Amino acid sequence: MKTKNRDFLRYIMLFLLFSIGIWQNLNGNSSYGSGLIGGAIGVFIAITFKQRKIRQMEAQGLNTYDERAWFIAGRAAYFTYLTFALGSAFVVLIGSIWGPPVLVNPYNFLGICLSILVLLYICFYYYFNRKM
Amino acid sequence: MENRLRELREQHGLTQEDLAVRVNVSRQTIISLEKGKYNPSIFLAYRLAQVFHLPIEAVFVFEAGEE
């Protein structure tokens, strides 16, 4: 996917999140709505700064998504999957034996899983980027 | 894998950024290659060798058992 298309999709996603935030605020779910609006604004600012830097590098003729970046991304994704799978298996194993039965909200649970995956990916990417 | 990138780059009077632009990668990739932390794909190795007008084996030193 070209950088322009990727940027466009990112901004559409942020706009959607921002709109859902406003909608939830108007419906009285202010903590969820404000969280979404704050998150969307924060990500928008971060992406804008990052894209500016990338464009400067591209203007100098440098390739910011070169083979090393893809290699690191691949390794980070693999180690994220491995850590998450092993960690989950361990928690399920121990929890099934000794843990109390817990009722969970599936949406919260998926949100937490997603956060853990993203955090793990960022940590592994940072680690391999420093290491290589 | 060992390589002679730094030596060749300095011989040709190129900066890391110049070389990165010529082979269409980031400067960080050239730094990693020079430090021997990252092994390039065959395509990148070929492009690097082309910049110095040398065969790949004159730039990258492969020793058996390194894989």
Short description:
The complex is a heterodimer of chains A (132) and B (67). By secondary structure, chain A is mainly alpha-helical.
Sheet with most strands of chain A: none
- With helices defined by DSSP (H or I, 4 residues minimum), what is the helix count of chain B? 5
Mean pLDDT across the residues of chain A is 90
Radius of gyration of chain B: 11 Å
What separation lies between the terminal Cα atoms of chain A? 25 Å
Multimerization status: heterodimer
Largest sheet of chain B: 2 strands, antiparallel
Q: How much β-strand is present in the residues of chain A?
A: under 5%
Strand content of chain B: 5-15%
What is the ordering of alpha helices and beta strands of chain A? HHHH
Structural class of chain B: mainly alpha
Q: Span from first to last CA of chain B?
A: 9 Å
Query: How much helix, percentage-wise, in residues of chain B?
Result: 55-70%
Given helix and strand content, the structural type of chain A is mainly alpha
Strand tally of chain B is 2
Average pLDDT score of chain B: 90
Please name the CATH topology of chain B: 434 Repressor (Amino-terminal Domain)
Tally the helices of chain A.
Answer: 4
- Counted beta strands of chain A: 0
The geometry of chain B reads as: globular
Protein architecture, described:
The complex is a heterodimer of chains A (132) and B (67). With 132 residues, chain A is mainly alpha-helical. Chain A folds into two domains: 1-65; 66-132, no CATH class. In chain A, 85% of the residues lie in helices and 0% in strands. Chain A is built from four helices and no strands. Chain A has helices spanning 3-26, 30-59, 67-98, 106-131. In chain A, α1 (3-26) runs antiparallel to α2 (30-59). Chain A starts with a helix and ends with a helix. Chain B has helices spanning 5-11, 16-23, 27-35, 42-51, 56-59; strands spanning 2-3, 60-61. Chain B is built from five helices and two strands. Chain B has 67 residues and is mostly helical. Chain B has a single domain (2-61), classed as 434 Repressor (Amino-terminal Domain) (Orthogonal Bundle), CATH 1.10.260. The mean pLDDT of chain B is 90. The longest helix of chain B has 10 residues, at 42-51. In chain B, α2 (16-23) crosses α3. The chains are: A mainly alpha (132), B mainly alpha (67). Chains A and B meet through α3 of A and α2 and α3 of B.
